[in-house]
């Protein structure tokens, strides 16, 4: 069974974290979480863009957590982040770490209710887990491993791995 560690780098509604953990357990992952917030520091913030530099956050988190005995380490935080190539990103993965940036997971008009927001977070957490376990972005329409550029893309895909991604995961499945 794969072991997943969840942590937050901003305060996150407890309901959200609980729902994500329950969801991962329902998918047969062993999920644990760190209660305390892992604080980011000002050097990761770009004052011109008023956004965080995802790579700088990743470097910091990677150094701090990649040695922990988990197969997958997922950070969730309500911040707006960018990379060299993307004006903004919804998540960012490297090795066994994946970061979920939820700042843009609510509709622009503030319309998304909590359950919609949670569903989006769940999908991108599972997508991140897939990457940390070696899966690539998938083109199967309903697959949770589909690459997303915006909220519509998230809403249009399903909450599960497609059979092929499931098969690839099981090749490495640990008993
Ligand atoms: Zn991806
Ligand atoms: Zn797939």
Task: Give a written overview of the molecule.
By secondary structure, this protein is an alpha/beta fold. It has one domain: 3-Layer(aba) Sandwich (Collagenase (Catalytic Domain)), CATH 3.40.390.10. Helices cover 34% and strands 21% of the residues. The chain is built from five helices and eight strands, in the order βαβββαββββααα. It has helices at 14-26, 54-65, 114-132, 151-156, 163-171; strands at residues 3-8, 30-37, 45-46, 51-53, 72-77, 81-82, 91-94, 97-101. A hairpin with a 2-residue loop joins strand 7 and strand 8 (97-101). Helix 1 crosses helix 3. The protein binds zinc ion (2 copies). One zinc ion binds at residues 138, 140, 143, 145, 161-162, 164-165.
The first-to-last residue Cα distance is 5 Å
Helix content: 25-40%
Which strand order spans the largest sheet, edge to edge or round the barrel? 2-1-5-8-7
Unique ligands: zinc ion
Total strand segments: 8
DSSP summary: helix tally: 5
Series of H and E elements: EHEEEHEEEEHHH
CATH class: Alpha Beta
* Proportion in β-strands: 15-25%
Quote the average pLDDT: 93
User: What profile does the largest beta sheet have?
Assistant: 5 strands, mixed
Question: Which structural category do the helix and sheet elements fall into?
Answer: alpha/beta
- Looking at CATH, which topology would you report? Collagenase (Catalytic Domain)
Shape: globular
CATH superfamily: Collagenase (Catalytic Domain)
Total domain count: 1
